[in-house]
Design a protein that fits this description.
Number of domains: 1
Number of strands: 3
Shape: globular
Order of helices and strands: HHHHEEEHHHH
Helix content: 55-70%
Number of helices: 8
Largest sheet: 3 strands, antiparallel
Structural class: mainly alpha
Distance between the termini: 13 Å
Strand order of the largest sheet: 1-2-3
Strand content: 5-15%
């Protein structure tokens, strides 16, 4: 298995994170917050993302080795997780909005929930009855920082990187920081981007990311299988 380039790592992590497709969830979770609180929430998301990614990069492989997991087996399993997430991104809407009656006057008072399929992140929107907006720390760490952005797929691909060689840490760290910066920029521009792209544009973006993620997973699984089962090389793998 060869070490991926910095550009490949940045693009792969960007596809796994899907920050554009996640914008409706971010907007819903920060509903009612002031501009200052929204900025603070964004910074908390980025910090949470960086922490989870760095822990996966520098400690994930060693922790799994304690359980006797081979590096190639770890990569195959991680890519399997990524494949299921990519498949969900390809076959599910970016966001499913469900309106359900809430309160005594159910006919007039509709309560909307938003569910992000790829990360299985559920957000309950603030009601229009004066409900206090969530504090940045209440939504910035969970569910936005984790699992929306630093979800199982992101953690799996980073651990698979760390299992390749010790020379990859610098590139992986830079790819993580670049994607954290992208998350900050996109979240700062969440409302205008969502209005410009629209629901259908976000749906198309999610599906394109899903195709990239699925391709990354298939390539990773094939590479890992060649190490676990060298005889497969004779069959043209």
């Amino acid at each position: 298995m060869h070490d991926p380039s910095l550009l490949t790592m940045i693009v792969g992590l960007f596809a796994m994170t899907g920050p554009i497709a996640a914008l409706p969830v971010y907007i819903s979770a920060t509903e009612g917050q002031s501009k200052e609180d929204q900025r603070e929430t964004t910074y908390i998301i980025a910090i949470t993302f960086i922490i989870f990614c760095f822990v996966a990069l520098f400690a994930g492989t060693e922790v799994l080795k304690l359980f006797g997991v081979r590096e190639a087996g770890l990569r195959a399993a991680g890519m399997g997780i990524i494949a299921t997430i990519g498949w969900d991104m390809l076959n599910a809407p970016t966001v499913i909005s469900k309106s359900k009656p809430k309160g005594k006057n159910a006919a007039a008072n509709k309560h909307k929930d938003i569910h992000h399929m790829a990360s299985n992140t559920h957000i309950e929107q603030a009601d229009d009855d004066g409900k206090k907006a969530p504090a940045p720390s209440e939504v910035g760490i969970m569910p936005l920082g984790f699992p929306l952005y630093a979800g199982p797929g992101v953690i799996s691909v980073i651990i698979s990187w760390s299992s390749l060689s010790s020379h990859i840490y610098e590139r992986a760290s830079l790819a993580i920081l670049v994607n954290a910066a992208i998350i900050i920029i996109l979240n700062f521009l969440a409302n205008p981007i969502s209005r410009l792209v629209g629901p259908q544009g976000l749906l198309i973006t999610e599906k394109v990311f899903g195709l990239i993620v699925l391709a990354i997973a298939v390539t990773g699984i094939a590479d890992a299988l060649l190490i676990l089962f060298p005889g497969l090389a004779g069959f043209g793998f």
